[in-house]
């Protein structure tokens, strides 16, 4: 979410997918139609959703010795083998989850001219629109986004915080504060799975960067031709996903070279490891490529929180996780520098992580 000063970018005309849905065109506009190799297979979309590991957070916090040990083993397995897990009994009031879902949903149903008062300018990642678009011939996602930088305060763009719906800003503030605490606690337990001090990441990260992005995926007449969100890994340390109730199953993760749909557990957060943790753990815990698909009849709303180190921090593999059997896979780099690289690159699998690899040359 770094504010990135860049030269003007010609992205061409970008249709608003909610307006397209209302118009119900006979054919999907060409800019949304994916190449054959990128299209989601209907068989994948129709197969039963898989279940990523589930972590009962209450057993980590207040469980007995056996419950704690069992949950820590499950967390270790989730980080090593999946890069994704779900957290239940996370301690965040369910009414707050309902509130953030309501204000997000209410924002997306506002008239287009109201939402366009908060534009996501080309090359930036805050405001309303589509992020990661850098050319006029680039394929577009079947998704509308609204994103805000939260912490530290200097990354905020006050004019992008909407006046409507009422209580939007207040709800985002309270919700984000609770999710921030959850991220801090999860990183304590993740540190301990690596035999590090519980406060290792908190001390290293400084004033952690936090951002929120709300994604709305309208139904699409041809879900076999489009993607809701292009395949990518996240640049964060941790990403926290809340999916709106009653929506389609849209999240898919690349597991064993196959796209697996993920069914969120009720009132759970879906957590995934970002590129930053892959670098810090020297590849022991990997960020995982994921994407979103659409549905012919159902819409989908998701609320995503990104949590990452301060931009000033120099990052590289943690020395304790580098040895003869696990040589250093990544160079040391400035996190702000990496963030600029991430937000000025289109979503393309795990390509942005090449920035940090030892064998990769520093981009010019």
UniProtKB/TrEMBL annotation:
Signal peptide: none annotated. Keywords: Iron, Metal-binding, Oxidoreductase, Vitamin C. InterPro entries: DIOX_N, IPNS-like_FE2OG_OXY, Oxoglu/Fe-dep_dioxygenase_dom, Plant_2OG-oxidoreductases. One of its GO terms (molecular function) is metal ion binding. Residues 207-309 form the Fe2OG dioxygenase domain. Belongs to the iron/ascorbate-dependent oxidoreductase family. This is Fe2OG dioxygenase domain-containing protein.
């Amino acid at each position: 979410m770094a504010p990135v000063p860049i030269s003007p970018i010609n992205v061409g005309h970008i249709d608003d997918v909610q307006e397209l849905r209302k118009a119900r065109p006979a054919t999907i506009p060409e800019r949304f139609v994916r190449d054959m190799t990128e299209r989601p297979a209907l068989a994948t979309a129709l197969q039963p959703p898989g279940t990523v590991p589930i972590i009962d957070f209450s057993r980590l916090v207040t469980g007995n010795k056996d419950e704690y040990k069992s949950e820590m083993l499950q967390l270790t397995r989730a980080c090593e083998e999946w890069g994704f897990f779900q957290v239940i009994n996370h301690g965040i009031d369910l009414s707050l989850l309902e509130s953030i879902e309501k204000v997000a949903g209410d924002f997306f149903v506002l008239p287009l001219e109201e939402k366009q008062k908060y534009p996501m300018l080309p090359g930036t990642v805050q405001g309303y629109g589509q992020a990661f678009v850098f050319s006029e011939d680039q394929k577009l996602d079947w998704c509308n986004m609204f994103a805000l930088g939260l912490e530290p305060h200097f990354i905020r763009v006050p004019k992008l915080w909407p006046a409507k719906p009422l209580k939007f800003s207040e709800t985002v503030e309270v919700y984000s504060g609770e999710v921030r605490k959850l991220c801090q606690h999860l990183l304590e337990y993740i540190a301990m799975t690596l035999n590090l001090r519980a406060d290792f990441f908190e001390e290293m990260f400084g004033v952690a960067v936090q951002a929120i992005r709300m994604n709305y995926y309208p139904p699409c007449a041809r879900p076999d031709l489009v993607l809701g969100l292009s395949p990518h890994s996240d640049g964060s340390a941790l990403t926290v996903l809340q999916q709106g109730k009653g929506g389609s199953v849209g999240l898919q993760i690349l597991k064993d070279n196959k796209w697996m749909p993920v069914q969120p557990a009720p009132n759970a957060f879906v957590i995934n490891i970002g590129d930053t943790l892959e670098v810090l753990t020297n590849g022991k815990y990997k960020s995982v490529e994921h994407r979103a698909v659409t549905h012919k009849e159902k819409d989908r709303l998701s609320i995503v929180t990104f949590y990452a180190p301060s931009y000033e921090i120099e990052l590289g593999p943690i020395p304790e996780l580098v040895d003869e059997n696990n040589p250093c896979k990544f160079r040391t780099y400035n996190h702000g520098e990496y963030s600029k690289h991430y937000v000025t690159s289109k979503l393309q699998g795990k390509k942005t992580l090449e920035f940090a690899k030892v064998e990769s040359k520093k981009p010019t």
